[in-house]
Amino acid sequence: MANIYRGKAIKTKVAGHKSIGLAEDVFEYDSRLEAHCAEILIKAGIRFKPHVKFNCFDREGKTFTYEVDFLFDASQKMLGISAGIDAIEVKGALSRHDLLRIAALRFKHNIRTFIVTE
Question: For 15-26, what is the mean pLDDT?
Fold first, then answer.
C-alpha cells in the first residue's frame, strides 16, 4: 500500500470534517499520505484540527513558524505508541531538521508530536 504514496506529493481534498466538529467539511492536504491519515482519523471519530501553526524558536534563539498536520483536541493514546500524543506530523521522508522542529514544538508549547512516514 505504501507504493501509492511514492513520488511527487499530490494535493488531495478530504471530506467528512464536520463529523468531528469542524465548521468546514472539506480540507485540502499536501499529499495523498497526509489525506489518507486524515481519512483514518475521521473514520475513527478522533477530533483534530488540520494544519495548525505555532511560533517556535531554534537552539540559537531564532524564531520560526511550524505547522503541524493534525492537532488533537485532547491527548491521544494510540496502539503502538507508548505515550499520549497531541499532534501528528506526516512525512514522506524524515530529516534531522524535522526532528529539531518537533523538539522545538515540545519545548515551547509542550506538544508531543508523533511522526508518521511511508
Answer: 95
Q: Where are the beta strands (DSSP E) in 1-118?
A: 12-14, 27-29, 48-57, 63-76, 85-91, 113-117
Query: Where do we find the cell 503502538?
Result: 80
For residue 104, give the H/E element and its range: helix 96-109
pLDDT tens by residue, 68-81: 999 999 888 887 77
Q: Whose grid coordinates read 531554534? A: 58
Residue 33 corresponds to which cell in the numbers above? 499520505
Question: Nearest to residue 75, comparing CAs of 117, 112, 38?
Answer: 112
The percent of residues in the chain predicted with pLDDT above 90, rounded, is 62
